[in-house]
Amino acid sequence: MMSRDINVGLIGFGTIGSGTVKLIQDNEGLIRNRLGAGLVIKKIADLDIETPRGVSVEKGVLTTDVNEILNDPEIDIVVELMGGYEPAKSFILKAMRNKKHVVTANKALLAVHGNEIFGVAGEENVNMGFEASVGGTIPIIKTLKESLVANNIKSIFGILNGTANYILTKMTDEKKAFDAVLKEAQEIGFAEADPTYDIEGIDTAHKLAIILSLSYGKSVRLDDIYREGITSVSPQDIEFAGELGYKIKLLAIAARREDSIEARIHPTMIPFDHILSSVNGNFNAIHIDGDAAESVFLHGQGAGMMPTASAVVSDLVDIARDIAKGIWGRVPLRSYMDDEIDDITLLPMDDVLANYYFRVSVVDSPGVLSRISGILGKHNISISSVIQKGRKLDGAVPIVMTTHKSRERDVQTALREINKLDVVCEDMMLIRIVDEKLT
Ligand code: HSE
Predict the structure, then answer these.
(1) Single pTM value for the model
(2) What is the DSSP letter of 190?
(3) Which ligand 1 atom minimizes the distance to the CA of 191?
(4) pLDDT of residue 439 exceeding 60
(5) How far is the CA of 254 from the centre of ligand 1 (A)?
(6) Ligand 1 contact via 303 beta carbon (within 6 Å)
(7) Using only C-alpha atoms, what is the Rg of the chain?
């Protein structure tokens, strides 16, 4: 049985906005067959309504006045694809107050103002879709909220930023330095002119914050998530990682520990034989370990016009299906009932246990290794392997060590002590390792 068509207002006619319009046009018949109604783009608001977007829309659909969407009683769902905090947040809240359902890809906004926005959605009995906010086309939000609803999530390991993954892949494949690869990536449009969010792990942190709320029913402060970007990863470390059997990836890690949740983002060595190490270029991927489901792996395009539009339209269809049935709130917006969601203090980084890779550049003379291993031993850090290469560079040689499970606080204390030794030529490099089971 066919229902009435669903009217959509789109705010932001950029790459994803045009992709959303194109997908709804290209697959109109398919969507109608699956939804039992049509999705109609009734209005599109953008400051620039002149530049061609490669999709044709009827005259009168485009407007520079967002209120033509927010105040239109016939619009059922507002899609916010402008990004940023303001005015995106005010537009979303106004849409909700006007009883419109909302779809957004705005991870930064949800990561920082999620509690307020989800709260207003609850007060106004409107639905909210945000599949495109994490991992582009990858259905991670639906997987966590619905498919894995019966699981305790033991851990999540994600490659959630395509730009950072592209840069690390190029550095690995072409043995090039970070700066050179970043410059090339900017020239071909694979990295932003200001790449800070991508290379410093901020974009990844936004996505991890959303994942944490869905996985554990916890609302985290963004600043509480430990974060290191990829700027200090060198071709030398990538080469040593390869000799030790690892790839280096910018990983988002969330894990349930005894009484707390661990969340961190940093360059991480992953064993060659783990599926995440084969995720290359600008792809994203997420590995989830559920207590019943066990290992689940999702892989796909984390950005881009049509892949991200696929996630946006999936949310539109979900909400439209509920509108057709006259229901709301079948699936809680953050997977948990609202009154079950609370704030959380994450496990302090100092208390995290991990395996470590160290590279230290030292004067090549007797007793140096024993002084370094003495400091590590004093701080309960057990060495699992040592490589000393005879590659002398400016009178120094690199020593590379890996450790058994050690506590971050001990490692940082030892590192400070080692860096003070007169035989150490440059500060020690540290990269955390995950073992073959990703724990
Ligand atoms: N800038 C992101 C990336 C895509 O490089 O993966 C949008 O989150």
Answers:
(1) 0.95
(2) S
(3) 5
(4) no
(5) 19
(6) yes
(7) 24
DSSP string, 65-84: -THHHHT-TT--EEEE-S-S
Q: Which residues are catalytic?
A: 207
Residues with Cβ < 8 Å from 335, sequence gap 6 or more?
A: 144, 145, 149, 214, 215, 217
pLDDT band at 437 (very low <50, low <70, confident <90, very high): low
pLDDT at 49 over 90: yes
What count of Cα atoms within 13 Å lies in the side-chain half-sphere of residue 128? Answer: 28
Say how many residues make up the chain: 439
Domains and CATH numbers, the chain: 6-136+305-341 (3.40.50.720), 140-301 (3.30.360.10), 349-433 (3.30.70.260)
Positive or negative, the CA dihedral 15, 21, 24, 27 is negative
Cα of 277 from ligand 1 centre, angstroms: 19
- 3-state secondary structure (DSSP) of residue 23: helix
**Ligand 1 in reach of 198 Cβ (< 6 A):** yes
Q: What is the pLDDT of residues 122-135, one digit of tens each?
A: 999 999 999 999 99
pLDDT at 339: 85
Which ligand 1 atom minimizes the distance to the CA of 162?
A: 6
